Amino acid sequence: MSGNCDFDCSSCSKSCSERKDKRTDFLEKTNEMSNIKKVVGIVSGKGGVGKSLVTSMLAVTMNRRGYNTAILDADITGPSIPKAFGIKEKATGNEFGMFPARTGTGIEIMSVNLLLPNDTDPVVWRGPIISGTVRQFWSGVIWGDVDFMFIDMPPGTGDVPLTVFQSIPVDGIIVVTSPQELVSMIVSKAVRMAEMMNIPIIGLVENMSYFKCPDCNKEHRIFGDSHIEEVAGRYGLKVLAKLPIDPKFSATCDKGLIELYDGNWLDSVAEILEMS
């Protein structure tokens, strides 16, 4: 604490013994039967960069390493997680809370699509109702024992990311981007929001980084040269992984078989999560 301290930690970037995290004033409690150890948010500055794909693949990767994993689908108006895992049944519950759906390999999932009569029904809700639903997914669901929970957040820096950062004890976030320069600019907004909310940033993942030709084995930059190293250097962040453009990704998601994806692109991310 400096001599000029005004005791407003929200506007200060210094780390000291007197520092207070004001998020604790707003944090929601989990269901008393839930035991969640680590919470990782997956964010992006805009849609269409593969945030849900990265969320799903991370959950599968950690599950393969022997951890109990779960996904809280906070993208209320554009949920895609159940589709990627081929989940068709609806969520159930009792007087103690709701039960998440469970995938073939045991990954627990809660998404608004598990509550709607039809998967194609639109969610035409205003911000407060959407934010309340996200809080309910955290506090009203009986998650059981979870080593790593991944929160798939909607793109941008609106109501839901703010609700998640204020209401859920997020241990860190992973920012998903793509090679376009415009996306790199928008990623900066997500990074700055996390810094404003005092949320640790684990690092960046670039999706659609390149296409590897199966005939010549050469890598082609379909969306142009990557700018992720520049963005990472600007904010002192790590580049965790670069995912290729692979038709198998979309094929496995469309068929609900993401748990069968073959690849080790996110192993380095898993190692960092294990050490955190």
What does the secondary structure layout of this molecule look like, with pairings?
Layout: E1 35-43, H1 51-64, E2 69-73, H2 81-85, E3 92-94, E4 97-99, E5 101-102, E6 108-110, H3 127-139, E7 145-152, H4 159-167, E8 172-177, H5 181-196, E9 201-206, E10 211-212, E11 219-220, H6 228-235, E12 239-242, H7 247-254, H8 267-275
Helix pairs in contact: 3-4
Widest sheet, order of strands: 5-6-2-7-1-8-9-12
CATH class, anyone? Alpha Beta
Number of helices: 8
**How many structural units, i.e. domains?**
1
Q: Please give the number of β-strands.
A: 12
Shape: globular
Helix content: 25-40%
Largest sheet: 8 strands, mixed
Span between termini = 26 Å
Strand content: 15-25%
What is the H-and-E element order?
A: EHEHEEEEHEHEHEEEHEHH
Radius of gyration: 19 Å
Low-pLDDT stretches are 6-11
The pLDDT mean sits at 86
State the fourth-level CATH superfamily.
P-loop containing nucleotide triphosphate hydrolases
Task: Provide an overview of this structure.
The longest helix has 16 residues, at 181-196. This protein has one domain (34-261): P-loop containing nucleotide triphosphate hydrolases (Rossmann fold). By secondary structure, the chain is of the alpha/beta class. Helix 3 packs parallel to helix 4. The strands form 3 sheets. Strands 5-6-2-7-1-8-9-12 form an 8-stranded mixed beta sheet, sandwiched between helices. It has a two-stranded antiparallel sheet with strand order 3-4. It has a two-stranded antiparallel sheet with strand order 10-11. The chain has 8 helices and 12 strands. The radius of gyration is 19 Å and the shape is globular. The chain is 30% helix and 19% strand. It has helices at residues 51-64, 81-85, 127-139, 159-167, 181-196, 228-235, 247-254, 267-275; strands spanning 35-43, 69-73, 92-94, 97-99, 101-102, 108-110, 145-152, 172-177, 201-206, 211-212, 219-220, 239-242.
